[in-house]
C-alpha cells in the first residue's frame, strides 16, 4: 500500500496532537539500565535478540541519563547506592518513567536488612512494579507495555489557564 | 624440610606460652587455639615468625551474646609452606572490647580490623587508621551486634533528597 493511499490520496491526515505525541513517546522508550544485581542479567536478555525489546522501540540502552526515558531499577539497592541512583534519575529529562524490577527493587525482597532500602519507591516515583526473583524477560516486556499504555492515556499538552 | 603438622604447631605454642592458651579445639578438620587477650599479639607474631603463617586469610569477630567475654575475634591464619590453617581466637568483655592490632605483623589486617570495628565496635589498639569501613562515619551503631534490630534503626541512614529543586 502506497503512502498516497494511506493518507487518502491528498498527502495529509488529521489527528489529535496528544495522539501523535503519545504515539511517538510510547514507541521510543529508551531505557536507562540501572542494573544492580541478578535482575540485570534478565534485563540483558530482554534487550537481546530472543526477547527483543526492539519490537517496542526500547532496544537502545542509554548509559547517559540525558538520553533516557525510562529507568529500569534491576536489583537490590543499598542506602549508599540510593544517592547515586537518585542523582542519575534527577539528570534524566522529563518526561520520564521508572520500573522497579523484581522483588528487591519493589520491596527490599529477601534483603530484610539494615543496609538495603526496602523498596526504591522510598526515593523514586515508580510507575510499574514487577514481581519475581528475578522476573523473566517477558515480565519486563509486560512492564514496558504497561508504561506504553500509561503514556497513550496521558494528556501531553497543558493549556495555560 | 619435612612438613610440620598443625598439632605440632599447637603444642609448640602451648609450651612457649603456658599462661596464654586457655584452650584448644578441633572442628571440621581445623585446629583452634583460644588465647588470652594480653598474649594474642605475641602468639600471632610467634606463629608468623617461627611457623611460617605468613598469610592472614581473615579476621572475623563474633558476638557470643554472653555475660562474660561477649565478643570474640578470630584470626584465620594459613601457612603456605606447610599448607595448613590454624585459627586463633581471643575473647573480650563487653565493657572493654579492646584487642591489640595485628597490622604490625600483617599489613593486610588493616581493613579486616576496620570491618570488625565497624560491625561490632571492637577497638584495635595501635591501628593506624581506626575509621569505619562500610557504614557512614556519623553512624551511631554497630550493626552486627545482637541487640541491633535486623531491619536497622529507622532514620539512621540517610535517603536522597527527593525534591532537588527546593532550597
Question: Class of chain A in CATH?
Answer: Alpha Beta
**Mean pLDDT value of chain A:** 88
Helix content of chain B: 10-25%
How many structural domains in the coordinates of chain A? Answer: 1
Mean pLDDT of chain B: 90
Layout of secondary structure:
The complex is a heterodimer of chains A (161) and B (167).
Chain A: H1 3-6, H2 17-26, E1 31-35, H3 39-47, E2 70-74, H4 79-91, E3 97-101, H5 102-107, E4 128-130, H6 137-152
Parallel strand pairs in A: 1-2, 2-3, 3-4
Helix pairs in contact in A: 2-6, 3-6
Chain B: H1 6-16, E1 21-27, E2 30-35, H2 40-51, E3 55-63, E4 71-79, E5 84-92, E6 98-100, H3 109-120, E7 123-125
Parallel strand pairs in B: 2-5, 6-7
Antiparallel strand pairs in B: 1-2, 3-4, 4-5
Question: What is the structure about, briefly put?
Answer:
Chain A is an alpha/beta fold. Chain A has helices spanning 3-6, 17-26, 39-47, 79-91, 102-107, 137-152, and strands at residues 31-35, 70-74, 97-101, 128-130.
Structural description of this entry:
- The complex is a heterodimer of chains A (161) and B (167).
- Chain A has 161 residues and is α/β, with parallel strands linked by helices.
- Chain A contains six helices and four strands.
- In chain A, helix 2 runs antiparallel to helix 6 and helix 3 packs across helix 6 (137-152).
- Chain A has a single domain (35-152), classed as Rossmann fold (3-Layer(aba) Sandwich), CATH 3.40.50.
- Chain A has a four-stranded parallel sheet.
- Chain B has a domain at 6-101: Beta Polymerase, domain 2 (2-Layer Sandwich).
- Chain B contains three helices and seven strands, in the order H-E-E-H-E-E-E-E-H-E.
- The longest helix of chain B is centred in the first third of the chain and has 12 residues, at 40-51.
- Chain B starts with 5 loop residues before the first helix and ends in a 42-residue tail after the last strand.
- At the A-B interface, helix 4 of A face loops of B.
Any key phrases for this structure?
heterodimer; A: 161 residues; alpha/beta; Rossmann fold; four-stranded parallel sheet; 6 helices; 4 strands; B: 167 residues; Beta Polymerase, domain 2; five-stranded mixed sheet; two-stranded parallel sheet; 3 helices; elongated
